[in-house]
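Run VOC domain-containing protein through structure prediction, thanks.
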Amino acid sequence: MEIVVTLDCVDSEAQAEFWLEALTPLNYRRALDAPPYLILTAPGPAPTLTLQQVPEPKQGKNRMHLDLQVENLLAEVERLEQLGARRLSDEQTEQGFRWVVLADPEGNEFCVFLPPTTSGTEG
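Sure, done. The structure for VOC domain-containing protein is below.
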């Protein structure tokens, strides 16, 4: 069994460009382009990300979203914003977790977070 995450999008090509850059540290690459699907995979245990082109834009809040665990929260948020992500929240903290909610270029929410055990010098 394998977990595959599917993300509906109006422009799968633009979304692929964003997510390939966003997931660069995990070495994601295009595995298959068979409209309406554009499939991104990475070596190792990372889940497959399937971009499914649909005619309608996103509406409302995501019921499921991606969380990206990083080593430097603020630097990663800034990098993702430069790629086209939009910040939806200030930094939040709960139970030792620190995170920021972002949206990809089509408005799909995702979180960038540090777990409680992460120690570092980033702000």
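The chain has two helices and nine strands.
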